[in-house]
């Protein structure tokens, strides 16, 4: 893509995106460390940025006492439209990053720019996309809109549960939303090889198996006198790798990945306990009940000597899983994104589907909101040397502003 767009687009809103302001904003937020559960400083910056532009931000409390004990705040703002029958569009982006990883040769929060790339932890995932949303929201605020536009800058997307977006759903902020737009790095983690300009219209879901294998201890010189839980756990882990998986014409195949196996370690003792964690990505049609039943059937088929207990990871709320979803490419609320990209960049967008999970699963899966992902690409997501393509940060803002304006003008 090229941000050198024509001024005869739609009504010109894309030309109102200031590249310099966008880059400055992105540098500022990258320079504020914000690993998940530590988003206070970046939330305050975003609140102030919106407040300085008279966009009436509010803090939205997020509290999860049962498992994580986390307390934090999303930042929320709303543009009120004139027509209650016009669509309401949700703009969603997360403020947090993964915990800072070792190995950076330079400051992971430098926000340095080299060869059109901005470097920093979370620059691609997804502070670049968040900056795009903020400047698009500001541009939309200067228009006479028929429909509402809601901005949610959320906490804990990179954490275990997506608590920030979950709170917006539980507290009813998303109840009347007709479309969600999430600016994750669209081409970076997809099932297909795609390039910007691109639109991502679905994602696999995810469950986490927690398996406890209980055997019988014995002296290590007499293994036949005991039941080796670690050995049975290894057999079970290998069997999971070969289990049948769901298939979907858009999302492809599900997947299984052994994440951890722990047990034993006592000198000359047959391990009597072993615990396994297994990741399972799923496609539409697979549910918590079916996924658990698959595992129980697999365990029964092995006829292991050990006792085996299989469960899904505990969640703060019942049913709070990362559910798979697919948004219809021909949905009337989606087509403006195709039209905007064609108008702005004189090309058809690539279409893809996310291979992993994010807050878009809560919105598109649990909340059932048609969800579109558009966002800047980069590399080294969650790793050292993470960067985002600066021109695509600007272009994402232009696409969001133009497409949403088409929907709610």
TrEMBL record:
Residue stretches making up the Peptidase M20 dimerisation domain: 202-303
Xref: Gene3D superfamilies: 3.30.70.360, Zn peptidases
Pfam families xref list: M20_dimer, Peptidase_M20
Domain of life: Archaea
Keywords annotated in UniProt: Hydrolase, Metal-binding, Zinc
Cofactors: Zn(2+)
InterPro entries: ArgE/DapE_CS (IPR001261), Bact_exopeptidase_dim_dom (IPR036264), Peptidase_M20 (IPR002933), Peptidase_M20_dimer (IPR011650), Peptidase_M20A (IPR050072)
GO molecular function: hydrolase activity; metal ion binding
Stated family: Belongs to the peptidase M20A family.
Protein name: Acetylornithine deacetylase/succinyl-diaminopimelate desuccinylase
Originating species: Haladaptatus paucihalophilus DX253
């Amino acid at each position: 893509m090229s941000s050198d767009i024509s001024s005869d687009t739609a009504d010109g809103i894309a030309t109102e995106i200031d590249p310099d302001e966008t880059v400055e904003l992105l540098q500022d937020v990258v320079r504020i460390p914000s690993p998940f559960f530590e988003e206070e400083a970046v939330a305050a910056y975003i609140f102030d940025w919106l407040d300085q532009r008279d966009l009436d931000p509010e803090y939205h409390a997020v509290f999860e006492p049962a498992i994580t004990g986390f307390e934090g705040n999303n930042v929320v703002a709303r543009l009120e439209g004139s027509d209650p029958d016009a669509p309401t569009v949700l703009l969603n982006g997360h403020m947090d990053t993964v915990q800072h990883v070792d190995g950076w040769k330079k400051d992971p929060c430098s926000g340095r720019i080299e060869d059109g790339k901005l470097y920093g932890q979370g620059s691609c995932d997804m502070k670049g996309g968040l900056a795009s949303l903020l400047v698009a929201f500001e541009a939309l605020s200067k228009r006479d809109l028929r429909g509402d536009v809601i901005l949610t800058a959320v906490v804990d997307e990179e954490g275990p549960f997506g608590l920030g977006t979950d709170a917006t759903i539980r507290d009813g902020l998303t109840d009347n939303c007709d479309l969600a737009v999430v600016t994750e790095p669209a081409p970076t983690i997809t099932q297909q090889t795609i390039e910007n300009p691109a639109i991502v219209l679905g994602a696999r879901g995810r469950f986490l198996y927690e398996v406890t294998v209980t055997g019988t201890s014995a002296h290590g010189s007499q293994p036949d006198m005991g039941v080796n839980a670690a050995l049975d756990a290894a057999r079970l882990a290998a069997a999971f790798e070969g289990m049948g998986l769901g298939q979907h014409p858009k999302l492809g195949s599900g997947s299984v990945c052994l994440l951890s196996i722990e047990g034993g370690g006592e000198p000359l003792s047959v391990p009597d306990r072993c615990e396994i964690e297994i990741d399972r990505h799923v496609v539409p049609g697979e549910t918590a009940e079916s996924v658990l039943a698959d595992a129980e059937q697999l365990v029964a088929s092995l006829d292991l000597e050990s006792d085996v207990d299989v469960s899904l990871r505990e969640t703060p709320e019942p049913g709070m899983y990362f559910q798979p979803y697919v948004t219809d490419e021909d949905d009337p609320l989606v087509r403006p994104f195709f039209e905007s990209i064609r108008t702005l960049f004189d090309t058809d967008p690539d279409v893809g589907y996310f291979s992993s999970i994010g807050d878009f699963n809560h919105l598109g899966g649990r909340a059932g909101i048609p969800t579109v992902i558009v966002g800047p690409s980069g590399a080294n997501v969650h790793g050292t040397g993470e960067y985002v393509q600066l021109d695509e940060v600007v272009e994402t803002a232009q696409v969001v502003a133009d497409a949403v304006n088409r929907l709610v003008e």
